[in-house]
Structure formats: structure tokens, C-alpha cells
Design goal:
13% strand, 8 helices, 260 residues, globular, alpha/beta, Rossmann fold
Length: 260
């Protein structure tokens, strides 16, 4: 496999200005892929990081709750560069609450960003992939797409739905050069997870280190976080020739979480 086997491939990674999305984008860029970044907040550093790897980059700030903005995102890519070759559906948010107290607007936002946005990006890029008879769709789900945790009803529902969408997409493209798979991380030390650690430490009046150990010990037997770089390496594998017949898989990288 060539070191730059994705050279010239147009790659969209949603939710990629930081965390998991940026880590995956960097790995794909190192293999030669041109990267379209998307997300909220400051993005210039992410663009510089990608450009330093010798590939083209483009940023689009589409709000992934809004189908018209998602459509504009894909149309902008096609007008600027051409049809998307690799789609990484990574955008996600979290809200923690019991079902009876769960704000309905938060439910709608979690489902829209974590699940429905992936339907819209997928339906919009598939025609171009079918025309080329090649494409990779990677849905960044979660171990919560396989198992549940309390107080995460919207997130768990969305991630289970994303695994289901992955399987249907894989079946509908099974006789083509397009593959669709889901990656299901356990704990990854992103700003989202760090916030959960900080909240736990404050609520229990314990140190960050103690809160981190507690968090991992409850779910992840390996007692270590998965890194964005490790997730990026798995994404590269699924984009390579080794992934040509890997279809509809929900591949957990969770330190043994789902094995319990």
C-alpha cells in the first residue's frame, strides 16, 4: 500500500476543527487526501495543521442541524474541487439527563447532529461515488451505538441509529466499489469527555486524576483512553484496499467495554 494512497481523494470530515474529527482528518491528510473541514468555533489552526501536511484544505461552517446548510456544504465542495470520495460523519454533541428531565430541544439537537446529518451527507455524496464506482463512508458512532448508559437517551438512540444507517448504506452499495462502516470508540479524551471528567471531579470534590480513574474503571477494562490517532489509523485501514470488502461493520475500539 502506497504511503500516499489517498492522494487526490476529496475527503469531507464533519465536526473536524478539534478532537476526534481533526485527528482523523490529519491521518487521512498524511495519506495524501485533500480535506474539507467543518465545525463550530475557531478553525484557522486546524486548517494550518492540515495544510502543513502538504494537501489542500477547505473550511465550511455548515450547522449540521440544518439540511439546507448541509446541502450547501456538499455543493460548495463539488463546485470547488469535485465529488466527495471519502465521507467521515463525525459531528456530534452530547447532553446528559434522565429521560423525564431531558429537554426536548436538546433531544432534537442531539438526534439532528449525531444521526440525521449523516443521512443528509450520505444521500448527497452517494451519486458522485456511484458515478466513480468508488467511495468510503465512515460513520463515527460510539460504543454507545452498541450498548447503553443511563442518562444518555438521546446520544444512545442516535448512535444506535447511526449503526443501523451504516448497515443499510452498506447493503445498498454492496455490489459497488463503495463501502460504509462505523467506528465505535469508547472513552476518547476529547474536550467533551474532559468536561465530563471535570464535572465529576467538582461534584465529588476529588482530583482530576481520581475522576479520570473512576470514569475509566466504570466502563473501560483497559483503563486507558483511545486516541484520535488510533481512530485515524483504523479509518486509514478502512479506506485502503484491505477494506474493500469490509462492509456494514460496527468496529468498536473501546478497551474491552462492549466485551463485558
Amino acid at each position: 500500500m502506497s504511503e500516499k494512497f489517498l492522494s487526490g481523494k476529496i475527503t469531507l470530515v464533519t465536526g473536524s476543527t478539534s478532537g476526534i474529527g481533526l485527528g482523523i482528518a490529519k491521518c487521512l491528510a498524511q495519506a495524501g487526501a485533500d480535506i474539507v473541514l467543518n465545525g463550530f468555533g475557531e478553525h484557522s489552526q486546524a486548517e494550518q495543521d492540515i495544510q502543513s501536511l502538504g494537501v489542500k484544505t477547505l473550511f465550511h461552517g455548515a450547522d449540521m442541524r440544518k439540511p439546507l446548510e448541509i446541502q450547501d456544504l456538499v455543493e460548495t465542495i463539488e463546485k470547488s474541487w469535485g465529488q466527495v470520495d471519502v465521507l467521515v460523519n463525525n459531528a456530534g454533541i452530547q447532553h446528559v439527563s434522565s429521560i423525564e428531565d431531558f429537554p426536548t430541544d436538546k433531544w432534537d439537537d442531539v438526534l439532528a447532529i449525531n444521526l440525521t446529518s449523516s443521512f443528509h451527507t450520505t444521500r448527497l455524496v452517494l451519486p458522485g461515488m456511484r458515478f466513480k464506482n468508488w467511495g468510503r463512508i465512515l460513520n463515527i458512532a460510539s460504543v454507545h451505538g452498541l450498548v447503553a448508559s443511563v442518562n444518555k437517551s438521546a446520544y444512545v438512540a442516535a448512535k444506535h441509529g447511526l449503526v443501523g444507517l451504516t448497515k443499510v448504506t452498506a447493503l445498498e452499495t454492496a455490489t459497488t466499489g463503495i463501502t460504509c462502516n462505523a467506528i465505535c470508540p469508547g472513552w476518547v479524551l476529547t474536550p467533551l469527555v474532559q468536561h465530563q471528567v471535570d464535572t465529576r471531579a467538582k461534584a465529588m470534590n476529588i482530583s482530576i486524576a481520581q475522576a479520570t480513574k473512576q470514569l475509566l474503571s466504570e466502563k473501560e477494562p483497559s483503563m486507558q483512553f483511545t486516541t484520535p490517532e488510533e481512530l485515524g489509523a483504523l479509518a486509514l485501514f478502512l479506506c485502503s484496499v484491505a477494506g474493500n470488502n469490509v462492509r456494514g461493520v460496527a468496529w468498536n475500539m473501546d478497551g474491552g467495554w462492549a466485551a463485558q
